[in-house]
Specification:
The protein is mainly alpha-helical. The protein has a domain at about 35-88. Helices cover about 45% and strands about 5% of the residues. The chain has 3 helices and 2 strands. It has helices at about 1-5, 35-50, 70-85; strands spanning about 60, 65. A two-stranded antiparallel ribbon has the order 1-2. The longest helix is centred in the C-terminal third of the chain and has 18 residues, at about 70-85. It is globular, with a radius of gyration of 14 Å. It starts with a helix and ends with a helix. The relative contact order is 0.17.
Length: about 90
């Protein structure tokens, strides 16, 4: 399943429920102020994309352990999915 989700050349579907631990207000972050949230997103994307980033000790809740290449692919697809949701 991981390979198909990461490498099959199709867009992720809409309407897939958010995992409960990531839902806003439950375990995920609650939106505050748009410009501050945007600034934090840009900062986190920079950290996520650092060449020396190893992703050691981090497991995806569905896919489990992933290589740095898989994490970067997932990050691209995840951001692309949400930007498409908002028409960006």
């Amino acid at each position: 399943m991981k390979w198909f989700a990461l490498w099959l050349p199709v867009h992720w579907p809409r309407g897939v429920p958010t995992r409960p631990e990531m839902e806003q207000g439950s375990g995920g972050s609650v939106p505050l102020e748009f410009s501050a949230d945007r600034k934090e997103l840009v900062h986190l994307l920079g950290r996520f994309c650092e060449p020396e980033r190893t992703f050691e000790g981090i497991a995806h809740p569905i896919f489990g352990k992933m290589t740095p290449a898989e994490w970067r692919r997932w990050g691209f697809l995840h951001l692309d999915h949400h930007l498409r949701q908002f028409g960006a």
